[in-house]
Amino acid sequence: MRVEFLGTGGFYPNERRHTTCILLPEAGVVLDAGTGFFRVIGRLETAELDIFLSHAHLDHVVGLPFLLTGLLSGKPSRATVHATPPTLAAVKEHIFAPPIFPLLPPYVFEPLADKVSIRGQGTVSHRALGHPGGSIGFRIDWPGRSLAFITDTTVDGTYTDFVRDVDILIHECYFPDELAEAATTTGHSNTTPVAELARHAKVGRLFLIHLDPRRTDADPIGVEKARKIFPKTELAEDLMSVEF
Question: What CATH number has the domain bearing residue 199?
Answer without folding.
Answer: 3.60.15.10
